[in-house]
Design goal:
By secondary structure, this protein is of the alpha/beta class. The chain is about 25% helix and about 30% strand. Strands 3, 4, 5, 6, 7, 14 and 15 form a seven-stranded mixed β-sheet that branches. The protein has a six-stranded parallel β-sheet with strand order 10-9-8-11-12-13, sandwiched between helices. Strand 1 and strand 2 (about 20-25) form a beta hairpin. Helix 3 (about 130-140) packs across helix 4. The longest helix is centred in the middle third of the chain and has 14 residues, at about 130-140. The chain is globular and about 60 Å long. It starts with a strand and ends with a strand. The structure holds NADP nicotinamide-adenine-dinucleotide phosphate (NAP). NADP nicotinamide-adenine-dinucleotide phosphate binds next to helix 1, helix 3 and helix 4.
Length: about 300
């Protein structure tokens, strides 16, 4: 059996359960493409899965490989996998119910791959798919954000937030973000019009008549967000469906979004990247064997943009 180096989880738990070791190299099934992973983006869902927080919703056969953000090169196409050939440079947010990208190889459905942006190296490209697709699907597909509207983006400095700020600006919206003060300058450079230091100011005291709220925080941040919306506005949460009673009480709508692989949207995102309108913000690039440290960093909840694991 062919093997590869990978980071695997044999039992749910803290960062120490991540084991860098030999694992079976995946075989591409029907409709799959085998991709040589060059870099894997790290996202909060990786450590939530590792810690067993998603059990019931996502059920894996252990040992499993986390990481659902990747950039790499096509190694081989399985039966019925069309559109890709050996050597193509690709990036993807693959199916989260399967083994992930903290590994030298991953089998991905052909329809979940898109062309890697040409202007970026693999490390930068791997920081894009999951967070940028989340921002796109939350702001545009669910929120219907349009030119001239106002959006409040919570955790604007985070993985999802940094893409949401840029995408909302590109759409022609007025962008308000919450972030600690040290992140304000760089967020202005990314396109935010107004920033609120959530440590000093209660955003609901200064923000009014917003068309769309992007809730990346849940809890009391979500509870306090309803009142900043104008009548008919929408709160889009990426942390579970919001209460329909609360939405009705405020005369607004609430919707939950769980990001889905989307080849067409990922291709469009790649075009924006290559035309200089969208860029990933990367706090650190670590070698794959430092996945444990990457999780410890991401779990502080104060990463600026993304952390990436370099695989090749
Ligand atoms: N439903 C989905 O499909 C989906 C997809 C992606 C992510 N998610 C979830 O969405 C959440 C955000 O993801 P992410 O990747 O953006 O996380 P992240 O990168 O870890 O977010 C870190 C950012 O949060 C900011 N932050 C922390 N506390 C804050 C507060 N009280 N108010 C405002 N900002 C605050 C920090 O900014 P400061 O350092 O300035 O405080 C930091 O920049 C996670 O829980 C993740 O699991 C869901």
């Amino acid at each position: 059996m062919a093997t590869m180096r990978a980071v695997r989880v044999h039992e749910y738990g803290g960062p120490e359960v991540l084991k860098y070791e030999d694992a079976p190299r995946p075989e591409p099934g029907t409709g799959d493409v085998l991709v040589r992973v060059h870099a894997a983006g790290v996202n909060p869902v990786d450590w939530k899965v590792r810690a067993g927080m998603t059990r019931g919703f996502l059920n894996y056969k252990l040992p499993m490989i986390p990481g659902w953000d990747l950039s790499g090169v096509v190694e081989a196409a399985g039966a019925g996998a069309t559109g890709w050939k050996k050597g193509d440079e690709v990036y993807s947010r693959p199916d989260i119910s399967r083994d992930g990208a903290y590994a030298e190889y991953i089998a991905v459905k052909a329809s979940e791959l898109a062309h890697k942006p040409k202007t970026l190296d693999h490390a930068k490209a791997s920081a894009i798919p999951l967070a940028a697709l989340t921002a796109w699907q939350a702001l545009f597909d669910a929120g219907g954000l349009a030119m001239g509207q106002t959006v409040l983006i919570h955790a604007a400095a985070g993985g999802v937030g940094t893409f949401a700020v840029q995408l909302a600006k590109w759409k022609g919206a007025r962008v308000i973000g919450t972030a600690s003060e040290g992140n304000h300058e760089f967020l202005k450079e990314l396109g935010a019009d107004e920033l609120i230091d959530y440590n000093k100011v209660r955003f609901e005291d200064t923000v009014r008549d917003v068309d769309v709220v992007l809730d990346t925080m849940s809890g009391e941040t979500r509870d306090r967000s309803w009142k900043v919306l104008k009548k008919g506005g929408i709160l889009v949460s990426i942390l579970g469906p919001p209460s329909s009673e609360e939405a009705a009480k405020h005369g607004v709508r609430g919707v939950g979004v769980f990001v889905q692989p989307n080849q067409k949207e990922l291709e469009e995102i790649g075009v924006l990247v290559d035309s200089g309108k969208l860029k990933p913000i990367i706090e650190a690039v670590l070698p794959l064997e430092d996945a444990r440290r990457a999780h410890e960093m991401n779990q502080t909840l104060h990463t600026r943009g993304k952390i990436v694991l370099q695989v090749a």
